[in-house]
Phosphoenolpyruvate-protein phosphotransferase
Amino acid sequence: MGTVYRGVAASDGVAVAKAWLVAPSEPSVERVEVADPQAEWARVERAIAAAKEELAALRQTALDKLGEAEAQLFVAHAQMLDDPELTGQIRQAIEAERVNAEWAVKSVIDTLVGLFDALDDEYMRQRAADVRDVGSRLLRHLQGGGGASLADLAEPVVLVARDLAPSDTVQLDPAFVRAFVTDIGGRTSHTAIMARSLGIPAVVGLGDITAHVASGQVLAVDGSEGLVVVEPNEEELARFSAQVERQQGERSRLAALRDAESVTLDGRRVEIAGNIGTPAEVAQVLAQGGEGIGLFRSEFLYMNRDTAPTEEEQFAAYKEVAEAMALRPVIVRTLDVGGDKGIPYLGLPHEDNPFLGYRAIRVCLDQKELFAAQLRAILRASHYGKLRVMFPMIATVEEVRAAKRELEAAKQALREEGVPFDEDIEVGIMIEIPAAAVVADRLAREVDFFSIGTNDLVQYTLACDRLNERISHLYQPLNPSVLRLVKMVIDGAHAEGKWVGMCGELAGDPRATAILLGLGLDEFSMSAGSILKVRDVVRNTRYEDAKALAARALEADTEADVLRLVEGLRS
Ligand SMILES: C=C(OP(=O)(O)O)C(=O)O
Ligand SMILES: [Mg+2]
């Protein structure tokens, strides 16, 4: 039998392929005295040129696949290699100590990383990670070239990594990357969300899988169960291969649902939409038959750059999405910064409890100019499609009123300037804080719709950090406590004639679909890769049965009991 490891099921699907260790433990670098320091420096110059070429290619890939914001990261890395401060220190180390290039690069990079790390500040830690990334790239080129680059993959593999850096994820080609498994991360970490949107099976939070696997070993991965089998025996291999085949058949069956209606057997219609972070992701949502965009995480436009995007830049991005979706609805969520989403130039202070701190709507209501630029951009773009605006992290009725006042002020200014926008643009809020769920009946009077953000709602309800794998057993989206809150939200909105969507990861979990239908959810928004699976469940469920199931789930004692109820309905 192969050795079995269990982690967090992050992205559905099974795969069998050889392991490929990403950035295996740093190549060892020895200190060697050299006779010709000039020749060593020339080696560094060649390595820098090669690294910059590689970064330019990465930037182009990021631009094509993800958009300008992500591409900026690679520009920043290339700039670091041009920084005379950095290159000067490397050169000096070579000349003064008469040491080999590798040693000089490693010691300069290590010192810099140490300095940044010691500052205990989110921005500086990110800088440290960037410097480390640039340093490893340089070392790789000094030690004989780009052999370890993911872009060079030529056969199907399972990636094995501590975590995946942006420069890794951007290169993932589903044709070669059959699955990935990582030491750290939870179901809602960015790596996991990325895996689901690419439709790649993944298991994360495995602890130290990188220490137990060598490149070339065969791995069988079950992303739905969170299982990894290292060197499976024949019997296991046969079982997994049969599953892979079934999965391929299932994929073609689901593809036929691309243009089908999202309607239950007894006629209840819901909307199934996609979540995106950049305009480039719209294509994936449309390819999977998404009926709208239920969440455009606008903060991605603000990341990996040194200043906030201007009103014009934002306008262009929102307009692009509005037009690409034609008249299908698009919900733009205003800036959700803070917590796990750092944006250094906004000058957010260091906080002991960032998830309970200065973030999202709290920042926007405080930094009014930042907010106004975004609201103007969204309103202007609303003229070109069917945009809706949504405020994140609402805890109180006053916050909604204050946010709406800012929106009204932006509208008034545009009217005075004669700039066209959709006067009837719908306004909604995220329900992701338990306080908001509890007073949903009151909040419903203030807005046109709600969208439930279960990623945060679950962490706040169970007091369980969504990124902490040590307590991932407590991160229970189907815990009856969460379901009861969801019910309060839906009932509160419906009583006021308002509709309710869900854009947290639970909306894309087919195990939850029948319960959410039964609770009365009107719109489901998820990673593109889940759309067809959820539509399939909707089309095979009777609304009347779903209501009965939901009623029983609300009375269950535990999440495990809820899951057993779901299994009962399915079998
Ligand atoms: C959709 C959500 O927002 P994010 O994951 O961006 O915090 C959520 O909290 O469920
Ligand atoms: Mg959230």
The chain has 22 helices and 16 strands. Residues 432, 453, 455-456 surround magnesium ion (ligand 2) (CB under 6 Å).
